[in-house]
Write a structure and sequence with these properties.
The complex is a heterodimer of chains A (313) and B (64). With 313 residues, chain A is mainly alpha-helical. Chain A folds into 2 domains: 157 residues, UbiA prenyltransferase (Tetracycline Repressor, domain 2); 141 residues. Chain A contains 15 helices and no strands. Chain A is flat, with a radius of gyration of 21 Å. Chain B is mainly alpha-helical and 64 residues long. The termini of chain B are far apart. Classes of the chains: A mainly alpha (313), B mainly alpha (64). Chains A and B meet through α2, α4 and α6 of A and α1 of B.
Chain lengths: 313, 64
């Protein structure tokens, strides 16, 4: 009789569906990676064979997914505590931690090797560094150590357009660095706006978010400072070879709105925010998503127009 | 007696197996497509093969 009991109680463990493995790769983060890497690849001078370009984007995305799986393996204890992440495959018990680690490691190796074969060693090296940076430097080391974790983690998310650029050109230039800078500087205000209205979660998980360690007024000040620092980077892209009037006009409007939003967040106190259910913080967070999407969309539009001999400087 | 009942677990396993199979087929397709793309844009495909051949040896100036 104990046989039957044993079989029924362990039947579901480690028997994940295919979708659970896909969820392990953070598909929503991957979509942002695909978009920014694609823009980096398309605006780079020289052009690339469509099949090679497709392969490059695919393996950049898989590399990002691999680092997501490694992150979920290591952070399962934190994820289980936070409401937002409790249903992720590892804390939910659908995927075993060892499986997540193994998937992350294998996909990392495959994506870097395939990117090297499809494009060049610079792009593959950058992808390998990105995975290492996100999984080891951010996830294992600094996330639980410093309230600047978001700033550091943002660097990992900022690499894809640079990798896309390197896949075509075989190197890194000022344009690639500024595209990196755009995402890098955008990440802190974006996440801190979220942290302001997602109260409690990080506190429970003992993750040193700025809102927990330095308080909410300080977080509001940080949002404003980082947004002010973001503006010259965003406008700076417009003065390079990939910029032009379309990008510049878009960037001017978007940065003015984002600055106004950051100013509004800074001017508010907790009582005002509580009173209207964090309406301004939520509005700025939503806008920040459009902000990044439209900047890279404008770069793409600029490149498309340049192909017809119009638009560039 | 044959086991005929399909448990939810079997469905999950089937889904996973089909998913992995499709990934492998896609991977083969990508490697094949990549190979074709590389060959199409490839530069010199002929290289030194221990035997001097006219096509790979440097041209010699003809002097009268």
């Amino acid at each position: 009789m104990s046989d039957i009991t044993t079989n029924t109680t362990t039947a579901g463990e480690g028997e994940a569906g295919f979708g659970d493995y896909v969820a392990l790769m953070k598909p929503r983060v991957m979509s942002l990676v695909v978009f920014t890497a694609l823009v980096g690849l398309l605006v780079a001078p020289g052009g690339i064979d469509p099949m090679i370009g497709f392969t490059a984007i695919l393996f950049i995305a898989i590399g990002a997914g691999a680092s997501g799986a490694l992150n979920m393996w290591y952070d399962a204890d934190i994820d289980a505590v936070m409401k937002r992440t409790a249903k992720r495959p590892v804390p939910a018990g659908k995927v075993l931690p060892g499986e997540a680690l193994s998937l992350g490691m294998w996909l990392s190796a495959i994506s870097v090797a395939m990117l090297a074969l499809a494009t060049n060693l610079v792009a593959a090296g950058l992808l390998a560094f990105t995975i290492f940076f996100y999984a080891v430097i951010y996830t294992m080391w600094l996330k639980r150590l410093t309230p600047q974790n978001i700033v550091i983690g943002g660097a990992a998310g900022a690499f894809p357009p640079m990798i896309g650029w390197a896949a075509v050109t075989g190197g890194v230039s000022i344009e690639a660095v500024l595209m990196f800078g755009l995402i890098f500087m955008w990440t802190p205000p974006h996440f801190w706006a979220l942290a302001l209205f997602m109260k409690g979660d990080y506190h429970k998980a003992k993750v040193p978010m700025l809102t927990v360690t330095h308080g909410r007024p300080e977080t509001r000040r940080h949002i404003l400072v980082y947004t002010v620092l973001l503006v010259p980077v965003a406008l700076g892209v417009g003065f390079t070879s990939i910029g032009g009037p379309v990008y510049m006009a878009t960037a001017l409007v978007l940065n003015a709105i984002f600055l106004k939003g950051a100013w509004d967040i800074w001017k508010r106190n907790e009582e005002d925010a509580e009173a209207d259910g964090y309406a301004v913080e939520k509005r700025v967070f939503r806008f920040s998503l459009y902000y990044l999407f439209l900047h890279f969309g404008a770069l793409l539009a600029q490149a498309a127009l340049a192909a017809y001999g119009i638009g560039g400087w | 007696m044959a086991i005929t009942q399909t448990h939810e677990l079997h469905k999950r396993r089937l889904g996973r197996n089909i998913g992995v199979a499709l990934c492998l087929v896609a991977f083969i397709g990508i490697v094949f497509g990549l190979t074709i793309a590389k060959i199409r844009q490839g530069s010199t495909m002929e290289a030194f093969d221990h035997t001097p051949r006219v096509s790979v040896t440097p041209p010699v100036e003809v002097t009268e």
